[in-house]
Amino acid sequence: MSEQEAAIRIGEALGRLRRERGLSQAEAGARIGMTSQGWSLYEAGRRAGLFRPDMQKRLTAALDATPEDLMLLAETPPSPAPGPASAPATDGAGVQSKGRDFEPAPSRTIRRERYRLDTDDMGPWAFAGTIIEYEKDRQPKQGGGAVLQLRDGRLHLGLWQGSDDRGVVVANTGGTQTPFSWRDILAVSAVTARIEPE
């Protein structure tokens, strides 16, 4: 994916977040001292600042969201817009059959949990006191935050490196990789937010 395609995808995700909150571009922009025109340029993916973490934090804060929410949404394709009912199809014998309407997939319940870090092992990504929010049973993305719930009751935070039939590998911010066997893991979850201590 090119940088321009990535910018467009992030901008579209920003627009989806704004619409989910029921805000106009002018209302969202006003929350952070920006004009509706300035906000629309971010949603169109036409501002280079869209990739800057501080700008993502500023934009998402206007929507009561986090940069992690934005990036997760950017990776999820938008639902297709409802279109007109499908026209009857015909087969070779001239017999008509009705188009089939599909029920949307049932929405899944999002199970988010939080815990507070008590070490600086993941600095500068997250320090002691940072609250980690994670979505249970959501597959982490490559290099993204992952929480492993271990059978011994511990939680392990790391950066997702991948998995195979034997287990998973996570790394700390220094790049040291740690493998875990599937037999030692109860659940794998994706980090959806880091809430910095005040």
Automatic annotation (TrEMBL):
Domain HTH cro/C1-type: 16-70
Alphabetized InterPro entries for the sequence: Cro/C1-type_HTH, Lambda_DNA-bd_dom_sf
Region (Disordered): 73-112
Pfam families assigned to the protein according to its UniProt record, in alphabetical order: HTH_31 (PF13560)
Coiled coil: none
Protein name: HTH cro/C1-type domain-containing protein
